[in-house]
Amino acid sequence: MSAYGYQLQLKHLLEHGVRWAPDQEIVYRDKLCLKYSDFYSRVLRLAGALTGELGVKPGETVGVIEWDSHRYLEMYFAIPGIGAVMHTINPRLSPGDLLYTMKHAEDDILVFHEDFLPLVEQLRPELSHVRRFVILTDGVEAPKTPVASDEYEALLKRAKPLEKLPDLDENTRATLAYTTGTTGKPKGVYFTQRQLMLHTLSLGVSLAAFGGQGSATTRDVYMPLTPMFHVHAWGMPYVATLLGLKQVYPGRYEPELLAKLVKTEGVTLTHCVPTILQMVVTAAEAHGLTFPGWKIVIGGARLPKGLALAARKLGIIIYAGYGLSETAPVLTLAFRKPFMDDWDEDAQVDVDVSTGFPIPLVDLRIVDEHGNDVEADGHATGEIVVRAPWLTEGYLKEPERSEKLWKGGWLHTGDVAHFKEYGYVQIVDRLKDVIKSGGEWIVSLDLENLLSLHEGVLEAAVIGVPDPKWDERPLAVIVPREGWRGKLTGDQLKEHLEQFVNQGKLIRWAVPDRYEFVDEIPKTSVGKIDKKVLRKTYEGTQ
Amino acid sequence: MSAYGYQLQLKHLLEHGVRWAPDQEIVYRDKLCLKYSDFYSRVLRLAGALTGELGVKPGETVGVIEWDSHRYLEMYFAIPGIGAVMHTINPRLSPGDLLYTMKHAEDDILVFHEDFLPLVEQLRPELSHVRRFVILTDGVEAPKTPVASDEYEALLKRAKPLEKLPDLDENTRATLAYTTGTTGKPKGVYFTQRQLMLHTLSLGVSLAAFGGQGSATTRDVYMPLTPMFHVHAWGMPYVATLLGLKQVYPGRYEPELLAKLVKTEGVTLTHCVPTILQMVVTAAEAHGLTFPGWKIVIGGARLPKGLALAARKLGIIIYAGYGLSETAPVLTLAFRKPFMDDWDEDAQVDVDVSTGFPIPLVDLRIVDEHGNDVEADGHATGEIVVRAPWLTEGYLKEPERSEKLWKGGWLHTGDVAHFKEYGYVQIVDRLKDVIKSGGEWIVSLDLENLLSLHEGVLEAAVIGVPDPKWDERPLAVIVPREGWRGKLTGDQLKEHLEQFVNQGKLIRWAVPDRYEFVDEIPKTSVGKIDKKVLRKTYEGTQ
Q1: B179 catalytic, yes or no?
Q2: Does residue A387 sit at the B interface (CB-CB below 8 Å)?
Q3: Dihedrals φ, ψ of A300, to 5°?
Q4: Burial class of residue B398 (count of CB atoms within 10 Å of its CB; 0-12, 13-18, 19+)
């Protein structure tokens, strides 16, 4: 049979974008502007350099440490395009974890930005598996160093470009990235050509068709504000290339330059975490800037309603999304449904800041400990488990953790949520922080919020402690305000919580029996309450 | 490994649509309005009836003869949903061809609308392979007939609904349809779950994101005006269901009812052939109606510019598309690129009426007889050959024709085209009507258009006749106008064509040497010039 067995490959996205918009621009900071057609030539040249001079074979791994750039986008296509694996390295990891991930990934080639030269020089003696080191520079000449055997632009210049990217099996591994939890070593998640293609198509149709907040079209100008080393910048560069959008890559994030690029390049489509949005809003307010029509998808953490309202005041169109490194990443987007177009602002923003609605091909359930669906009654909580055609098959070389991730054939997100009205998901906690007590799940975040409303409470953390009868019971750790130290009692706080029980906002069973008063609550390096330490402190106590 | 091997299946579209828009409406004529959630229940009930009472096994074939209805949409999901093949039967075929296709498909079950009862009664004695006949009726009771063992609604009422549609391999065959050429028996084309899913996703992202003429969104109201028995109504019902659109099914097409439905249901998204659009425009002009914002995709035949302009005057947003039964069907859509937004109307409409631009994942080439790409210079013509992940693997049980279709690993469309500016495709002829002469391709349509500009020409047809030296040479068959009969000469017409050669509009080589004058040109049953008959008439003559 001569029929062509079409394999889903990332090159199809690129080829479409180039065909549709050969003269469209890809901008790098205030330094460079490439046409799609030139960009495509550079991808083929890079592919030639990889397979030629660097001798990269299908299945080998190329590690990349780089800021957001046209070069990174070139690697997004050229490295998987020759059948190799692009290992996107997060430079924010500790040197120890960085080394661990590079050794674990067995990187054959390392491509790195000159900013990371000291780091690479430091790690080099341990990286015996890396065959060649390629340095990237924004300058005319790369810094002289014995570490880098090659410079990116020189390599491209010398290369014999491929005529086309080769045909690959769609199940060829395309990318690899490491995710860090609070426990254990970083874990490698990996995605195939097919998975990334299907993620792109579903995300593309979602952004374009489902929006009530403003749909993405070929008229948009895209700029990432989630780094490209972080789960393919949420897969958005692939969508942008498919649609032939003008793309703006800001390099290392510098607030002044970012604001300038948004204005001068006419950016209309972005994604970032709430912290970055907060920076944007603060800077805009300080300088009296507005950004009418700028669509920003928010993920990575809960989008506070106050922040969403502040962004709206600047003309920014804002809505939340949700996903994990394990899920390529997008699972949900907080699009409004058609009938919500007439709602008042407050109700609309409640939708915008929710965890969102599963995008096409995502089968999302919220289940109890036994894997049964919890009731979609707006209250009952459980763990989010998912299926979709773009989820990592496991953790690289970690069969046990992989089995746990995929227990029962569903990917376990570790996020605790309930269904809100109209099928929207709302995450309320991380699974490991939920308190399992007498068959009920008690959400620590809810309790902490309610406790913090008492005038004597400066800070509150609630954890589960082992209980012989009820499995776990909640324990509240409280930092009293000035003037309340030594005076605030557990009974007072119990009484405070009882009122919410009476109002139906809290189940009686959730009210903690024990209250510990401390001067300080231990925090992690990024400022989150360190519940692991708290649990260790109180697990043996009664 | 517990990781779930996600298979692309049509049920995922349905499940998404129902989850997103459970209260959205599916309207049938002026008779019925179903919510998506009720529709989904009916699909599960139908699936239960098929697997239960009707005993349909995976891989068996269910033939369907039906107008456009919610019932047909139910079958679009339930029949493939249980792993069976939905054979969409074109009732416009001759009874002989109908019988041929049903026997060739080996339909196990036949579902038919009561309008076709006389036909089914006539064919029944020959349909020994059909196990059960299910009749569909809009009325309260189906007409009594010994042919129909079952009535659709009664069957559904009795059925035990499935809880969910089962999981299938994505390469399971989902649909089968027959296409008729001018020669030979109808040919069966078939598509898998995966193919239809990928067609839906690419078409969805195209309609939503690429439009310059108006993008489709979840706010649209969809109504087909290409029958559902014709290549899945261009795959649009699947897109509409994915997006949770309000859908309107008009049953048998009746102009009065169609116009009424568009107005009362607020239809905004439709597709049809130019003939239907012409009917709509004529009726609207006669009744002084307008349709502001109604998006109509035109396919099946070339969209005349005059018709497009007339439709625009009524507020209709119009653009062309292209595909074949063999291609599921969509290959191109005539979307304007962003920089065309500023063009004047005339230039924009030239884009709208072109054959269009390949949608994502379609690899479209225009090649000469040796399979080499012709130059994309705006003139050079060749055959369109394609690859995409949703093309039929061949013709059912016809290995030779299948090999010919897929010669060299590219699906041969039989359409002759050139690339216009900016990568748009323009079809100029059918391959079998092109004249191959001295290594050049001469487009018969061009010659016919130019000949018809002579005041003495009522009608012109140009065919290729065998030539010992040049392979073929063009021969013009002319019906002179009243008053020119017996007077018009070949030399006059040659002279007439020479002026276009001098203007650079025609290559000299294309000017026919021979001119035959006749009273009438033979036509096919649908009114097209019958070139097969003409070629037969003149092939032996000199």
Answers
A1: yes
A2: yes
A3: 90, -25
A4: middle
Name, in order, each residue with C-beta under 8 angstroms of A400's C-beta and a sequence gap of 6 or more.
Answer: none
3-state helix, strand, coil in chain A (%, to 5): 35, 25, 40
Q: What is the mean pLDDT of residues B113-135?
A: 96
pLDDT in tens, B386-413: 999 999 999 999 999 999 999 999 999 9
Question: Any catalytic annotation for residue A441?
Answer: yes
Residue of B nearest to A408 (CA): B2
Dist CA A134 CA A527 (whole Å): 35
- pTM of the complete model beyond 0.90: yes
For B88-114, give the DSSP string. Answer: E--TTS-HHHHHHHHHHHT-SEEEEEG
* CA nearest to B208, candidates B218, B219, B216, B220: B216
Asked whether the bond before A468 is cis by omega within 30 degrees of 0, the reply is: no
Place of tokens 């990187």: A107
| B504 or B249, greater pLDDT | B249
H or E, element range at B303: none
Q: What are the pLDDT digits (tens) for A532-541?
A: 899 999 987 7
Q: Which domains does chain A have, with CATH numbers?
A: 10-191 (3.40.50.12780), 194-431 (3.40.50.12780), 435-538 (3.30.300.30)
Q: Do A217 and B211 touch (CB under 8 A)?
A: yes
Question: What DSSP element (H or E) covers B233?
Answer: none
Place of tokens 């059909």: B130
Mean pLDDT to the nearest integer, A412-425 = 96
Chain B residues near residue A219 by CB distance under 8 angstroms: 338, 341
Find residues 168-207 of chain B whose CB sits inside 8 Å of chain A: 198, 201-202, 204-205, 207
Q: How many CA atoms lie within 13 A of B214 on its CB side?
A: 19
**Number of residues that this document lists for chain A:** 542
The enclosing H or E element of B23 equals none
* Set A88, A101, A175, A179: catalytic member: A179
Q: Which two tokens stand for residue A482?
A: 């000035």
d(CA B471, CA B435): 9
Strand order in the sheet with A382-387: A363-367, A382-387, A411-419, A425-430
Q: What is the pLDDT of residues A346-400, one digit of tens each?
A: 999 999 999 999 999 999 999 998 999 999 988 889 999 999 999 999 999 999 9
Catalytic-residue membership of A355: no
At A180 the pLDDT is 82
pLDDT, tens digit, 9 for 90 and up, residues A236-280 = 999 999 999 999 999 999 988 998 999 999 999 999 998 899 989
Taking the CA of residue B394 as centre, how many other CA atoms within 13 Å lie in the half-sphere pointing to its CB? 16
Helix axes B10-20, B193-205, angle to 10 degrees: 50
DSSP state of B186: -
Bridge partners (DSSP) of residue B296 are B270, B318
Distances B489 to A448, A472, B71, B521 between C-alpha atoms, Å? 97, 103, 59, 18
Report, as an integer, the average pLDDT of A170-198: 92
CB B260 within 8 A of CB B30: yes
CA–CA gap between residue A441 and residue A507 (Å, rounded): 11
* CA angle, B427 then B432 then B438, to 5°: 95
What number of other Cβ atoms are within 10 A of residue A467's Cβ?
17
> How many other C-beta atoms can be found within 10 angstroms of the C-beta atom of residue A420?
17
In angstroms, what separates the C-alpha of A200 from chain B's closest C-alpha? Answer: 10
| Helix or strand run (H / E) with residue B34 | strand B32-35
* pLDDT per residue as tens digits for the range B342-382: 999 999 999 999 999 999 999 999 999 899 999 998 888 99
Asked if B4 lies within 8 A of A391 by C-beta distance, the reply is yes
pLDDT exceeding 90 applies to what percent of chain A? 82
Q: What distance in Å separates residue A347's CA from the closest CA in chain B?
A: 18
- Nearest-CA distance B415 → chain A (Å): 19
